Amino acid sequence: MNEKILIVDDEETAREALSEVLTEEGYEVSTAQDGYKATDIMKLENFDLVLCDIIMPGMGGMEVLKQSQKQSPGTIFVIMTAFGTIQSAVDAMTQGASDYVVKPFNFDEFLMKLKRLFKEHKMRRINISLKKEISQKRRHERLIGQSVELNKILNLVNKIAPTSSTVLITGASGTGKELVARAIHDKSPRKDEPFLPINLAAIPSDLIESELFGYVSKSSDGTTALSEGLFKVVSGGTLFLDEISTIPMDLQGKLLRAIEQKEIIAIGGRAVERVDVRILAATNKELTEEVVQGRFREDLYFRLKVCEISMPPLRKMKDDIPALVQHFITRHNTELNKNVRGIDDNVAKRFMSYQWKGNVRELENMIERAMIMCEEDIITEKDLPMDFINARAVDGDGVILKKVVEQCEREHIKSVLETANYDKKKASSLLDLSLPSLYRKIKELKIE
Asked: Torsion angle, CA of 394/398/402/406, rounded to 10 degrees?
């Protein structure tokens, strides 16, 4: 589709000449002889770009700019000005104009400028679209549940996030340590800056230093080049160092200096560089024991645990299982092109009595596998792997089946209501319930 351009100029000759040139270039062009006519046209049509003279009788270009921003804030607005009024054009840019051109202008240069503006505008729209897409995905990557334990963690996150303090997140694998780190970043003043998670255990020990701090290389002709490390790449943002216990002992002092002094020196370099990075670290090991064994510096340990969040295992947060199950089903329905609605009572009972040694990660993997096997819209025991079915249930928490079923039912109905934009008639159809039955369920399960 060709871009639509509106030309606003009280000089008929200039207006027609511009229209002819832009039409020949393939643009869809409309014209207006004054600001009043332009605003009327903009009420009826959307334009990709408005090209407007700054000085016109009646309504001038600045007022047209204001009207354009009100009616179509995403439209590119370019001011045309004579040499003597360039300052006015610059002032217009501070008010939101995209650019300006000086009359009389070279058409070749003018057309190149338009192409550049359209390209930049397209890239901005793509960027906005990607940010929305990432935001949508991030909504599926959040801490899920309403247990007492999780609420304590969320309260800690809310207190810690606004600060710049280092945070140590501890807990077994699969408990959601990275999700906590993301939550801290997303609620912090650095939320619009990069968040970079790094698994130190996955980087060869002899490469960790160059990855974190960068290195200076020297070519055969004697020139040097700096390859920036992650501390520079993520400048202004948050660096999440997972498996912090695996960092080599000889690098721990350098990391401590980076945290305390906010200074780094690249390998092979001499210049001290200032860095602005918040450090969040995580481990599934007991760092105090690592300190005792001489594998971890005590001063670094205390610097990292200015604030500490301990993630409980899933078996200690069983009240969150129904919400997590529904969350993972909703996520994987999209990825697997399925329409699974939930789990049956027997599966719910097994889930609530299982130990989940792999924690939330194991639960998600179980849900994904069951959904792949599931041929109906409800996951049943036949969709679960035999080793899970044969596992001995450990129900030391006295979980009552009725309570489990109610929790699963509540989460499922809430999810369907959200999908139906809280249209209860549509939701009752999706749930295969009568409307009175849905209202009764909402009341019984205390769904707000």
From this structure: -90
161/59 same-domain check:
no
Q: Into how many domains does the chain fold?
A: 3
Amino acid (1-letter code) at residue 12: E
pLDDT score at 295: 94
What is the 3 state secondary structure string of 153-206?
HHHHHHHHCCCCCCEEEECCCCCCHHHHHHHHHHCCCCCCCCEEEEEHHHCCCC
On whether residue 141 sits in a domain, the answer given is no
Task: Show the beta-strand stretches assigned E in 277-399.
Answer: 278-283, 307-310, 342-343, 378-379
Q: Please work out, in degrees rounded to the nearest 5, the angle formed at the alpha carbon of residue 186 by the alpha carbons of 182 and 189.
A: 130
- Choose the weakest-confidence range: 97-106, 257-266, 295-304, 408-417: 408-417
195 & 282 share domain = yes
Q: Is the pTM of this model over 0.85?
A: no
Range of the domain at 308: 148-312
Conformation bin of residue 117: beta by default, left when phi > 0, alpha when psi is -120 to 50: alpha
Q: Are 398 and 427 in contact (CB under 8 A)?
A: no
Q: Do residues 327 and 368 lie in contact, with contact meaning Cβ atoms separated by under 8 Å?
A: no
pLDDT digits (tens, 9 = 90+) for 384-431: 998 888 876 544 444 445 565 677 777 778 878 888 888 888 888 887
Model confidence over 27-45: pLDDT tens digits?
A: 999 999 999 999 999 988 8
